[in-house]
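Me: I hope this is not a bother. Any chance you could explain this protein sequence and its C-alpha cells? It all follows right here:
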Amino acid sequence: MSSKRFKKLPEKTTELSAEGIEKILPEIKKNCTTKFDESVDLSFQINNKQKKNEINIRTVVNLPGGSGKKVKVAVVCEDAKSAEAKSAGADIVGGDDFIDKIKNGEMNFEKLICTPSMMIKLSKLGKVLGPKGLMPNPKLGSVTEDLKKAVSDAKSGQAEIRNDKDGNIGVSIGKKSFKDEQLIKNYNAIIETLEKEKSNNTVKGDLIRSVFITSTMGVSYKIKLGKNI
C-alpha cells in the first residue's frame, strides 16, 4: 500500500511532455517531502542492442557539482607511495598486509585504488572484490601511479556509469539540498560523457532512447534532451 505522503504526490508524471532539466528540478524538489536529504537520480535507457555488437558502457565521470557523499577510499600501493596516498586523503593505505586483510573479508571501504605493480597481486582477489564492484580498473582511473589525482577525484565526487544487459543506466547527480546549478552541471557532465562513449563505439542511431529524473522517494519525470546523441 502507498503511504499517505506518496498519495499526495502528483500522479502519472511520466505521461507528461518532456521538459528541460532546468524546468523539472523545482518539481522534483517540491516532491521531496521526506525528512532526509533525498538523492536526485537519473534513469537512462540506451540503444545498446546493435546489429554487429552490443554496447557495454563502463566509465566514471567527475561531477563538477560534487556528489554529496562521503566516500571511504582505500589504496593498495608500495611503501614508497604510501605517503602520497595518505597526504591525498586516503582513509586506508596498505600493501601486502592490507591485501591479506581484504582476502579475509575485511573490506570497510567504498572505493579501492591500486598502483599498477600491486595490481598483479590484487587481481587474484577477483572473486572477493568483483561481486562488490570494488576491483580497481585502469579504464575507471583506479589503477594508476597518480594516486594524488585518483584519491582526490574519488573524494570530490565521482559517478560510475554502467549499463545493464537491458540497456539501463542509473546514476545520481546529487541531493535535494544542492543548488539547481550544481545538479545541472552534474547532469551536463554525464551527458557529455555519454556523447564521448557514442563516439568511441559504433552506434547506429541515437545512443540515448530516453532519460527520466526522480528523487529517492519521489515520482519520475521525462527529460527533454537538448540534442540527440
